[in-house]
Specification:
Chain lengths: ~400, ~250
């Protein structure tokens, strides 16, 4: 029995390649529909993918910033830190107190830096490099490091000033640059410091004593309150819910929820447009494939009748258009992939100057190619089986007499 | 071979086929027909008299409208009730019978354009899984086709293509060969040559043959039994019925 099927397969293949001109027409017709569909999907996937990636990659999009200053204690901050949808949180102090004058031997001048409270796991910092720690290890923003002409491991000198009891008091603070933050993380001159160091700076400015640094002043602060926090949601999809939750408890926050929502809406819109076009395309494609296979069976009625006459079974006759349909599907798909490849390359090449090096505006994953092949093969098989059943139904005596 | 009655291959009793088109009715009625092994049957008549209809019925490629008794016996398979097989739409069973026991020569070759001459002649042998021996070469030599074996049918003349068709019908050593006007498309001189070559080869192999032709003159001298048939027209000319028996 299997011999017979192999024979059918061999005959169908011989026929297909013997009539290569017509076969090429079928393949071209298929590729002409499938190729642009792949390009369309590649664009949709590439554009939306790039936008979503940008959202996901960029920690600033996950930031939840309180508006104005509040009064938060450590326990409240700790409770927030335990929330599932919170990736990172550190308390902030009054912004007036969170600056520091820094100088380096290399630069020979004093610069005023914004001090940002940080901790291990800070989304703005490179997780591979050391985080700020203790009262002396800090991370400089890229622009700050450039102005000071320092690199990781160098030492810098911080100094701060307070008006205390009518006197101006200046203390100096030896610091070590633990790492330089990525340029994309923070564009201004900034210094990432541990929460302990930030608290020390505030205490000093408020006239309190900081025993750990031997700074004198009135009483040591016990019951500490913070005016704000730096908070990053676990993912962009948690931002809107976090914002809601803050607003419900009376804390006004600013987020990029609107941006995120607009990208997601764009994704949905583009997807809907794509699927509308894809469905119409798929319909047209199936019709054209079905029509061509159907017409082909009609054209070959006489030859199929001859096969019937020499004793081919119904199944073996149906195998004929099926095998040929699969050839068309495979070659058409391969050609469509070629068309897509050329189109995607040109699109990406033309838009390259406007994109980051790794970004591609038109791209497909291997599974997309596989899905395209599966759909094409499935559609052609269905059309071929229908056409084949029709072919097998023809009484051989009818087909034989037609010339 | 015992001297008793030769083995019956076809046995038809009250088999009929009626076809209608454009208000005309064509009917073929076979009250009784028996064809024995080794017989050479000729079916002579003008086109449209129902020759092809009878051949199609005998080749199991046309469903009879009415089959009182229609049996076929080919060697080891025993007797098969063809009428019943049609009623039960056992098309694959009929195809298998054709494949194993029948060769068919069509009016216009009916070769597969994508196979070379060798593969065309070898088609039925390959379907039956017969060994690749020198059968095809020998047939080609007898039919004068050796130098064409590796060409495609397109490259051959009509007469050569008919000879290929004869080779294909013979290659798997069927019990019966049915030939529908096998020489109608070639010139009379070539037709006579091909026909006598064909009948000679069939005779040599003791194959039952049923040939339809419109020219009795060609085959008279080849010793074929002519099936009696007469055609009747109804008064208004809208109904044509042919009755065949033998």
């Amino acid at each position: 029995m299997l011999r017979q099927q192999r024979h059918s397969l061999a005959l169908a293949s011989r026929d297909y390649f013997h009539e290569w001109r017509i076969s090429i027409c079928f393949v071209l017709a298929l590729a002409a529909v499938l190729g642009p569909m792949l390009v369309l999907f590649g664009l949709k996937f590439g554009i939306v993918g790039a936008m979503v990636e940008e959202l996901v990659e960029d920690p600033l999009k996950r930031e939840v910033r309180p508006v104005g200053s509040g009064r938060y204690d450590r326990a409240w901050i700790d409770r927030l830190r335990k929330r599932e949808d919170v990736d990172f949180i550190v308390p902030r102090i009054r912004s007036i107190a969170s600056t520091l004058s820094v100088s380096s031997e290399q630069a020979g001048r004093i610069l005023q830096f914004e001090v940002i409270p940080s901790a291990p796991g800070d989304p703005l910092l490179d997780p591979q490099r050391p985080a700020p720690s203790g009262l002396d290890k800090v991370v400089l923003s890229a622009s700050a490091a450039k102005k000071l002409q320092v690199a990781a491991g160098d030492r810098v000198e911080g100094s701060l000033l307070r008006q205390y009891n009518g006197r101006r008091e200046r203390v100096s603070l030896p610091l070590q640059v633990a790492a330089i933050a990525p340029a994309t993380a923070f564009s201004r001159d900034g210094l990432f410091a541990s929460v302990a160091l930030v608290e020390a700076l505030e205490d000093f400015r408020d006239g309190h004593a900081v025993p750990a640094l031997d700074w004198e002043g009135v009483t040591v602060v016990r019951d500490r309150h913070y005016t704000g926090f730096r908070l990053y949601a676990r993912s962009i999809y948690d931002v809107a819910a976090l914002q809601d939750s803050f607003e419900r408890s009376g804390i006004d926050v600013r987020t990029r929820a609107a941006d995120i929502e607009s990208v997601r809406r764009m994704d949905r819109t583009l997807s809907a447009i794509y699927w509308a076009i894809a469905l119409i395309g798929l319909g047209g494609f199936s019709l054209s494939l079905g029509a061509s296979l159907w017409a082909n069976v009609d054209r070959k009625r006489r030859e199929l009748s001859v096969l019937r006459l020499v004793g081919f079974h119904t199944g073996e006759i149906i195998l004929f258009p099926v095998v040929q349909g699969l050839y068309t599907a495979f070659f058409g798909w391969a050609l469509a992939c070629g068309i897509y490849g050329a189109a995607a390359w040109s699109i990406n090449f033309m838009l390259a100057p406007q994109l980051e090096s790794t970004q591609k505006i038109c791209r497909l994953l291997p599974e997309h190619y596989a899905a395209a092949l599966a759909i094409t093969a499935g559609a052609s098989m269905l059309a071929a089986i229908l056409a084949g059943i029709r072919a097998a139904r023809v009484e051989p005596s009818e087909g034989l007499r037609e010339i | 071979m015992p001297a008793s009655t030769p083995e019956t291959i076809y046995q038809l009793k009250d088999v009929a086929k009626t076809r209608s088109s454009n208000g005309y009715t064509f009917g073929l009625r076979v009250p009784s027909l028996r064809i024995c092994r080794g017989e050479k049957i000729a079916l002579i008549g003008e086109s449209g008299c129902g020759k092809s209809t009878l051949l199609d019925l005998l080749a199991f490629i046309l469903q009879p409208s009415d089959a009182g008794d229609f049996s076929f016996c080919a060697g080891a398979a025993g007797t098969v009730d063809i009428g019943a097989a049609w009623r039960r739409q056992k098309r694959n069973r009929l195809a298998a019978l054709r494949k194993a026991h029948m060769g068919y020569v069509m009016q216009t070759g009916g070769l597969l354009p994508y196979l070379n001459i060798y593969d065309n002649i070898n088609l039925s042998r390959r379907m039956l899984g017969m060994p690749a021996d020198d059968t095809v070469e020998n047939l080609a030599r007898e039919l004068g086709l050796v130098r064409h074996l590796h060409k495609l049918p397109d490259a051959l003349s009509t007469g050569e293509r008919q000879r290929v068709a004869i080779g294909r019908a013979l290659a798997h050593r069927p019990a019966i060969i049915i030939a529908d006007e096998p020489t109608a498309s070639v010139d009379p001189f070539a037709a006579e040559k091909i026909m006598s070559l064909f009948i000679g080869m069939v005779e040599e192999r003791n194959i039952t043959v049923i040939v339809a032709s419109h020219a009795w003159r060609h085959i008279k001298q080849l010793g074929l039994r002519r099936l009696a048939h007469h055609t009747r027209r109804s008064a208004d000319g809208r109904m044509i019925e042919t009755v065949v028996s033998g």
